[in-house]
Amino acid sequence: MKKLITLLLISVLFVSSAYAGGFQIGTQNARAMGMAGAFVGMASDASSIYFNPAGLTNVKGFNLIAGTTLIMPTVDFTGPKPLTTKTTTVARTFTPINFYGAYAVNDKWTVGVGVFNPFGLGSEWPDGWIGKSLAVKTELQTFYVNPTIAYKVNEYFSVGVGFSFVISKVTFLQAIDIPAIPLSATAILPAANNVKITLDGPGDPTFTFNFGFLFKPDDKFSFGFSYRHNVDLNFSGDLTFDGLNAKPTGFPIGQSDLFPAGKGKATITMPYDIRGGISYNATKDFTINADIMFVGWASYKYLAVDFDKNTSAWKDLMSPKYWDNSITFRIGAEYRIKDLALRAGYVRDGSPIPTKYMDPSLPGANRNEFTFGVGYQFTRMIRADVAYQYISFKNDLGDSALPFNGLYENSTNLFGFNLAFNFN
Fold first, then answer.
1. DSSP reduced 3-state for 329
2. Residue 108 banded pLDDT, cuts 50, 70, 90
3. Pairwise CA distance, residues 228 & 48, whole Å
4. pLDDT tens digits, residue range 251-270?
5. How far apart are CA 19 and CA 24, in angstroms?
């Protein structure tokens, strides 16, 4: 039963499929997405609030950017071995949003605010699938509201800093089969199949910060650095059980006494990330960008959960995780033909999840990702950007001793859309 609780809460707090290592969402602007998200050194519009706040000093007048990304993941699981059963996740589309507004107060100071979803998404497996006791439906949402200010120290060097107000929400559904439970030599609680367990609740509002630097020694090169601090999300969810048998007549307890509804509390740290980038203008119409990102997933050492109602079958949880820090490399380019911009990029994304701790709630692997994008300047004030990203991986855990080993295969299509308005 302790293993069941462990798997339940792992599934609650972490989402499955293939996004930036772990559960980070890197698609925060279709223009940058078309260049594989390599934008820290370029940082030339209001989306710098996310990528590198010092880049806001590149904004002239008032810049407004808004959009979304359609994320359509598919995960196939074959196993657990020695079985060869293949299950595919339910088709779903996730739509994280991004919104940025920036205003150049004068030649030195620029202010702005962004709203975006840097962590989240979810998964849904078919009802009654072979891994229903691990996860059926999982969703994690985070919203960052990020006011930012940037200062141009001189013609070569800029700095920026922001803070984020963070709200979050988690929803989880799983199903378990509870066996008959002997209470005495003559009293046996009957079994209950397909009992739905739901945990749903918000995280406490909290805060974090980010800052960045931008160095432009000449018209050819630009170097950027940014840091976003970690933040602790404290969840308090309503835990309910649907499908428990009624208490039999004459029995001292029923299933609802062993699996009581109540509250569950947990804390998880959204990791810090450090990014460095370089942008090179090979010609006046051709720009090449390269970024490296280090994410501090090693802060996720344990998953601790406190239930307000404990029984012999349902207890508090302390589960070791020991994730690894991860490194991601990005390279992208933009070629401009008058009002048209063509973009492409490549990502080598590192997975932080050690194989020994992997299960269907969060499969992962190091992966190669490819991006393409197009932008068009309709008028001096209006630009539209679209991008496509493809992610895939395979991870065969072989005959390892994991409780739910097998072959994990992922294929994810992402479509980004943004409109940008500039008034100066």
1. strand
2. very high
3. 13
4. 888 888 888 888 888 787 88
5. 6
Closest to 10 in 3D by CA, of 135, 116, 100, 142: 135
Q: In terms of residue numbers, what domain contains 321?
A: 2-423
Query: Cα separation of 264 and 120, whole Å?
Result: 20
Quote the tokens at residue 25: 């969402």
> How many domains are there within the chain?
1
What is the pTM (predicted TM-score) of this model?
Answer: 0.85
Give per-residue pLDDT as tens, 123-138: 788 888 887 777 787 7
275 by DSSP, 3-state: which?
A: strand
Whose structure tokens read 């300047």?
A: 377
User: Tokens 């996004």 identify what position?
Assistant: 19
Where residue 38 sits, what CATH number does that domain have?
Answer: 2.40.160.60
* φ/ψ (deg, to 5) at 115: -130, 125
Answer yes or no: are the C-beta atoms of 35 and 371 closer than 8 Å. yes
Residue with tokens 């299960």: 359
**Dihedral (CA of 334, 277, 168, 19) sign:** positive
Q: Return d(Cα 73, Cα 92) in angstroms, integer.
A: 7
Owner of token pair 């194989």:
355
Per DSSP, 356 falls in state G
